[in-house]
Amino acid sequence: MRILVTGGAGFIGSNFVRRTLATRDSVTPVVLDAFTYAAHPDNLRDERGAELCEVVRGDVRDAELVDRLVARVDAVVHFAAESHNDNSLLDADPFIGTNITGTVTVARACTRHGVRLHHVSTDEVYGDLALDDPARFTPETPYRPSSPYSASKAAADHFVRAWERSHGLAATISNCSNNYGPRQHPEKLIPRQICGLIDGRRPRVYGDGANVRDWIHVDDHNDAVWAVLDRGEPGRTYLIGAEGERANVDVVGDLLECFGRDRGDFDRVTDRPGHDRRYAIDPASTRALGWAPRHPDLRAGLAETVAWYRAHEDWWRPAAAAAEARYRRRERTLG
Ligand code: NAD
Ligand code: TDX
């Protein structure tokens, strides 16, 4: 089986490729990635610098290139996206281009060649829940995105469904909660605080820090994507989550403890505009496929993630410096 993995040089996509190569002899991945700031060339290389699979440098909006690659494979797993909420608040245009136009380009090519598409989406399309609301998101929850990022992912999901119904595309969609693990860009909450703590800086928490995210280890997400590819029904949506709801201050407290520091030793900074309060996934749709998370202990997963960042300083230092420069500009803008 040959699969095209878009965005395979980013965080989740590269872990997907690595896990696929480690667990599935019969699958040959081909990566299409534009290598934006979010990608790292080492994500798809072994310790000796050899490429792990065929890697094509290109844009998911390049219809001719996408068409040529899709014609060679049996399925497409579409990870490529602009993925950071804070960036989408500063400039929405790359999000509209890659996340919406890019997804339509991939859907068109899959339809033309009769190739199965799995579209990787996010729980953020459902908007947020109140902290005291017992509800969780299900595949029936109405879309209510809050940020330019989540609006662009919601639009992409709608286009995939429209191509399915109107043009006969065979597609599945998964909406997953917040991922953590190795190779996550240091702009995101967990790696940002780990890299700062390695350098002795205090974590920076937005607003009151009571916002809840539903954390899942990236390997558990990718195993669930394979469960959907293997046993999911085209036309259906699968929600992926590991029942790992935790407030930001508690995640940051756990990270501080990993460094032998006091749990309260962080700074509160200006809140993210429109900051979603809580996400929560009911994973029954994916559990029904026989999938279960193998990393249910978030504190243990965080400790392993800290160990990975400690051992890979060359990997994150340049990206962290660039991300911190962007954050300093953000803080000057927000006051
Ligand atoms: P990431 O930002 O780490 O990686 C995105 C990758 O896409 C990068 O390698 C980048 O170079 C590539 N890319 C960006 N624009 C491109 C373009 N125009 N053409 C080709 N490649 C392009 O993101 P991630 O965290 O790995 O997220 C992957 C997918 O999973 C995204 O679709 C995201 O919306 C979704 N998702 C992420 C999370 C999470 O917690 N990170 C949770 C749920 C869903
Ligand atoms: O420095 C920070 N301080 C802070 O308090 C950063 C970077 C974030 N935060 C907060 C904002 C969120 O409540 O931490 C939480 C997590 O923030 P991010 O890591 O930016 O993730 P989030 O905005 O929740 O979105 C993530 O999960 C869903 C991914 O980036 C998306 O791609 C995915 O769709």
From TrEMBL:
Query: Mind listing the UniProt keywords for this protein, alphabetically?
Result: Lyase, NAD
Report the SUPFAM superfamilies cross-referenced here. Answer: NAD(P)-binding Rossmann-fold domains (SSF51735)
* Segments forming domain NAD(P)-binding: 4-294
For the biological process aspect of GO, one term held by this record is: nucleotide-sugar metabolic process
Q: What is its EC number?
A: 4.2.1.46
* UniProt KW Iron-sulfur keyword: no
Q: Which InterPro entries match?
A: dTDP_Gluc_deHydtase, NAD(P)-bd_dom, NAD(P)-bd_dom_sf
Q: Which GO terms describe its molecular function?
A: dTDP-glucose 4,6-dehydratase activity
Q: Which reaction does it catalyse?
A: dTDP-alpha-D-glucose = dTDP-4-dehydro-6-deoxy-alpha-D-glucose + H2O
Q: Does the keyword Endoplasmic reticulum apply?
A: no
Q: Which cofactor does it need?
A: NAD(+)
Report the PANTHER family cross-referenced here.
DTDP-D-GLUCOSE 4,6-DEHYDRATASE-RELATED
Its family remark reads:
Belongs to the NAD(P)-dependent epimerase/dehydratase family. dTDP-glucose dehydratase subfamily.
What is the protein name for this chain?
dTDP-glucose 4,6-dehydratase
The species is: Corynebacterium sphenisci DSM 44792
